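INPUT
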Amino acid sequence: MHRLPFDEVQHTLAAVLSKLGFTPGRAATGARLFAETTCDGVYTHGINRFPRYVATIRNGSVIVDTEPRRIAAFGALERWDGRRGPGNLNALAMMDRALALSREHGIGCVALANTNHWMRAGTYGWQAAEAGFIGICWTNTMPNLPPWGGAERVIGNNPLVVAVPRPGGHVVLDIAMSQFSYGQLESYRKRGEMLPVDGGFDLEGNLTRDPGAIERSWRPLPIGYWKGSGLSIVLDMIAAMMALGKATHQLSHDPVFEHSVSQMFLAMHPAAFGPEPGAAQIADAIIASLHNSKPASEGRRVRYPGEETLRIRAENRKLGLPVEPAVWAEIQAM
Amino acid sequence: MHRLPFDEVQHTLAAVLSKLGFTPGRAATGARLFAETTCDGVYTHGINRFPRYVATIRNGSVIVDTEPRRIAAFGALERWDGRRGPGNLNALAMMDRALALSREHGIGCVALANTNHWMRAGTYGWQAAEAGFIGICWTNTMPNLPPWGGAERVIGNNPLVVAVPRPGGHVVLDIAMSQFSYGQLESYRKRGEMLPVDGGFDLEGNLTRDPGAIERSWRPLPIGYWKGSGLSIVLDMIAAMMALGKATHQLSHDPVFEHSVSQMFLAMHPAAFGPEPGAAQIADAIIASLHNSKPASEGRRVRYPGEETLRIRAENRKLGLPVEPAVWAEIQAM
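OUTPUT
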């Protein structure tokens, strides 16, 4: 594992994106998002994901030079067409639009059809929180999870992000509806480790912590069993219905052809009704109640969603972004 | 177990509510909500819950003759004060208000402070869906769940409802952030049964399916472990911050003094931009993809959230509402 300065990573990725046809500004933004994702410790969706992202550009799943277009607007609600543009740039623009609608109407909502994988879901939550807004967004995905009571992958893991601004550290929840991703299952298997909790069914239909058994059955667990299964279904329904876009069951099972997904972006402002110190105090008091509560293991402290990200971000900013040599060599050769 | 006609149940409960000071209209509505909840098969929050509801009126937690008051409004977003009124009537009024805001602005949102337990969460999802709207609402609760990594109950199980209208059967998800409620743990224990999946920790800190062991440790599991714990935290933050109301850590641990909770109500319309047959077709196609998928057990069918409710509702409407004689005698003596 090497470590490279943030700026060098961003510069290198931007150069690749420019060669692929991105304008300089869009190349710089796209590269920044990948670098920030690695910087925040989400290594699956940062630099390591870049080669697959490039593959989806080269195979035509992602169209680099398109921007989303507004299809319909009614008050605080808008419907946009992502035109199969880059999922991360589209999502950034749509959360910005939801923030603008929220400034105007108290709450804002954008439904986006025909977009692409937005890489790290949490990015758009941090974006909202850094602007001082509550942000809620989700995406549907290709069918990668069996519904509760089902043996076949027909629902998505549909990542959901809920972000709450807080001057002392934003609270950003970024959760897929599967307990573990296939990437995580693979990591555990390669390390020869069992999962910390049941992660799916084996081929005999028994719950198991064995990552390889779940990879063989293609039956990872939804979070909360029947509950996360239901949540995945309604998130898909709302995104596809509001955007008039594709639903999970219509998307390709092949990751590099998982294009034209549907997404939702909501924003609201705690101070929509006027300057309000109360909301920030409420946020701080909730976090304090967590920090001051008794931990399950002595010497540890209960953490809020996003807390660990701040620590990793500071560390990676200081020491440089961790980069796998093989991945970096592949990117440099692009 | 007796069965009584829906109208007789509603009439009896309404008479009790009238004696407690409800106006005739509010008594009838409150009684209807309890009867409908039992009719839909949510026996924990219907007739069986009525005596505890009455106890919270008698002890002053719930104030019968108050209605919510609007505190602030900005476009599609409003803040209301529930004035410690009856939680179910307050919630019904606030979802109605969110629907009205959505008609005007495409999406509508109400944050409600100082309200009370809304009984069955799903009620307000069915309300939105029956009006043709997508409805999302949640409440915070007293601290009844340890956060992930914590040993002490400082977060709530904060029920979340997501409802999607569909002419062929609304899709209504109603999930608490705990895998099992204390009521469910008690039921399993009394039947001498183990939980179908791990439901919490025992006193030694091991995951267990033993309901009694979890009751002793007060450590039920959040859905999806760390994921549901995080979701509970952000739902509490948003409700308390937007409503300027109380957060979970400020609420009583005693169920009959769990007053002044904070809630959120969101509504949006799939046809906000004009008549739109596409959304209903998308909904039907998603449900068809579930129904047509391979079940985990032969002869069963994958169900969508709310599907079973329709079957139970029809059965209980036809046969009468199931009533426990002891509970019914208690209510008749009120």
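end of record. DSSP finds eleven helices and eleven strands in chain A.
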